[in-house]
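Ticket #404: bound-state structure for guanosine-5'-triphosphate.
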Amino acid sequence: MTINQVNELLPVPSGPLEILALPTGGSNFTDAHTVSIYFSLIVPTYNECKNVKTIVEQLSKLLDGMIPGNYELIVVDDNSPDRTWEIAQSLTVEYPQLQVMRREDERGLSTAVIRGWQASRGEVLGVIDADLQHPPETLLQLLAEIQRGADLAAASRHVAEGGVSDWSVIRRFLSRGAQTVGLIILPGVVGRVSDPMSGYFMLRRNCIAGKTMNPAGYKILIEVLGRGNIRWIGEVGYVFQERKEGESKVTSKQYIEYLRHLLILRFARWPMGKFVRFGIVGFSGVFVNMAVLYVLRTYLNLELTRSLIFAAELAIISNFLWNDLWTFGDISKRQPGISQRFKRLLKFNTICLMGLILNVLLVNLMFNVFGMNEYLANLIAIVAVTLWNFWINMKLSWRVTEVD
Ligand SMILES: Nc1nc2c(ncn2[C@@H]2O[C@H](COP(=O)(O)OP(=O)(O)OP(=O)(O)O)[C@@H](O)[C@H]2O)c(=O)[nH]1
Ligand SMILES: [Mg+2]
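RESOLUTION: The complex was predicted; output attached.
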């Protein structure tokens, strides 16, 4: 019988949180770590000395039955005071597919998972909690989803057969509240899965290879959905189990971090170049408006209200033309023809008029109800309405209609 040696600790990757693609072609692999395998599962731990043995045992048994020799388990421990990393390392004698990373200079759940993925060599990357709250059996269904063709498979408490076992009303409320806030700030990310707070999922490595991650806080799934290139998502229901050993690391600070994370992602997804151009065009519209008003009043002696309406309308048309040719030129090129352009103009016009009404309402609210200075109120309203105009116009007037 051969006796295995203890595996060396995995070196902690440093530098940007970027997951590299696996090398292609297999001829010159000399280092064992560059030979790819099918599945790498990260088990992040902090003070889980009472759970780590059981979780490693259960996961190994399960995966040995399904993909023997074709997976690795990576425990990423943040130098736990209870020495979880040491216990995990001693387990590598019995479980040679287990590797352990001990981080001393960095902390935090999300970065632990990414550092683990960086050091891994799996084509499919996964994460599971160490505290046995995530039932290991669900892994089989998740892997089946990937094998069916999904890019990402997430375990969910909010689909059929999913749930939470012993959560208090307050915790349920906070969890749903956080999800709702996420849906408002980042609908295109948070709305893609039924349980965006899930910390139990797997995905194809090539969906995030080459992307630099920048997660704040706990919610690694949101980071992956926000930055990755993910089309097909599979969901599998599971019941979040009670924690039997060890302590929760969830604190109220994490709610703030979660909000910060949503805003960082929102900003990263905001098309800054287009927004700046839209702002410049908007600014040019002020001059068009003023010039037309001057001409109508001074040379044509038109009555004030009519002049204002004409001036505003011409400024809107001028803004539309610049935006159509410049700001959203890449999109309009794909929707050629005069009738298409006219449709875009109608939508733009309607949205701008709604923006004008919004502006008046906002200023009235801030000035009359909250007693704010009227110029400051107008300034805030202009900023808010510009954001509104940009976003809604991009989504409706210059929407890319063809499906790729
Ligand atoms: N490496 C590392 N792991 C962490 C850190 N914080 C939490 N973990 C691990 O991440 C997993 C989830 O953390 P928990 O504190 O159980 O969070 P939770 O399951 O959302 O909340 P509870 O229901 O209260 O347990 C567990 O395996 C923890 O040991 C951290 O800062 N670094
Ligand atoms: Mg837990």
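RESOLUTION NOTES: The two ends are 57 Å apart (CA to CA).
TICKET STATUS: resolved
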